[in-house]
Design brief:
Keywords: Nucleotidyltransferase, Transferase. It catalyses: 2 GTP = 3',3'-c-di-GMP + 2 diphosphate. InterPro entries: Diguanylate_Cyclase, GGDEF_dom, Nucleotide_cyclase, PAS, PAS-like_dom_sf, Rev_trsase/Diguanyl_cyclase. This is diguanylate cyclase. The protein is an alpha+beta fold. It has two domains: 121 residues, 2-Layer Sandwich (Beta-Lactamase), CATH 3.30.450.20; 172 residues, Reverse transcriptase/Diguanylate cyclase domain (Alpha-Beta Plaits, 2-Layer Sandwich). β11, α10 and β12 form a beta-alpha-beta unit. α7 crosses α8. The longest helix has 33 residues. The structure holds guanosine-5'-triphosphate (GTP). Guanosine-5'-triphosphate binds next to β6, α7 and α8.
Amino acid sequence: MADASSANDLALIKEALEGITQSLLVIDDALNILYANSGFIALFSLPPELVERGRPVEDLHRYLALRGEYGPGDPEAHVAFRQRPLHERSSYRLDRKRACGTYIEIAGSPLPSGGYVFTFTDVTERRLAQQHLEQQVANRTESLSAANLELSRLADLDPLLGIFNRRKFYQLATLARQRRASDDVPLSLLMVDVDHFKSINDRYGHSAGDMALKTVAAALVAGLRQDDVVARYGGEEFVVLLPNGRLANARAVAEKLRRRVAATTIVLGSLSLHVTVSIGLAVWSDPSQPLDSVLGDADEALYHAKQSGRDCVFVAPSAEGLFLPEDRLS
Ligand SMILES: Nc1nc2c(ncn2[C@@H]2O[C@H](COP(=O)(O)OP(=O)(O)OP(=O)(O)O)[C@@H](O)[C@H]2O)c(=O)[nH]1
């Protein structure tokens, strides 16, 4: 009676193992096959005799290795690699991409009575969904950082003129002064203001004024070097930082800019006009002097340039005495 019930139980268990979605392989403590469900045979398209009870699992590994299931390389090395954890009686779980392109998850656990049970689960759909998600996240991250980059670029620029704004100028000028704190080369600062700009707006309209500002900005940029910094200080006023500290050079650059603007034609439809600029020049020789104070010096010099009739360069009195004799003469 007891035997019949055990046989029934065994049949039931076998039936259950055939019905599960996972593929199953059981081996004994001598590493010979005890049982493989039909899911296992189907998963690897095996000849059934290869998984007959008592067959060494090593034969199965060798068969699969020779068939290319484990990828390129020495088949015996693949066999040894798979037999090792069985000898060590360690449990493991791994995901493997099969030669046919699908993914399986393999879990191996030693049984208390000796031997091993292995389950094989096709995780292709899960893996592909995960890869798809990862790709989406990567794409999203890429476009987000591109957008962030563009945002911070735009935050640095004046929207009308496309040159640096005052905030960015403060940043760059402060950085330039810090970088040169150790050498005693002064930086030069130009405050550039369009003369009688209000009259352009009044006579030709605000958009003509905008066009004039764009033309002046372009002329300034074209007249400067790569490491000079030009920014819109506000309204019709620009500020320029020249890393070269010699007054003679700075004054020459300021004069060049003044002439360049005066020679530039502003085209407004059928109309063309010219503007001039007044320039105040100050130097930033003492790294501990606040930038605002240097800007104040340049602004004061600009005021004098305006007072002197405009379309000219005026050097701030604070710059006097800071330079070599030939600088003062220029
Ligand atoms: N079109 C235009 N006009 C601007 C812009 N920003 C400031 N302005 C104008 O620039 C003019 C500046 O005028 P003022 O400060 O009197 O100076 P100015 O007419 O250039 O005279 P001086 O500086 O003394 O030679 C004002 O009319 C502002 O409205 C701008 O972005 N576009």
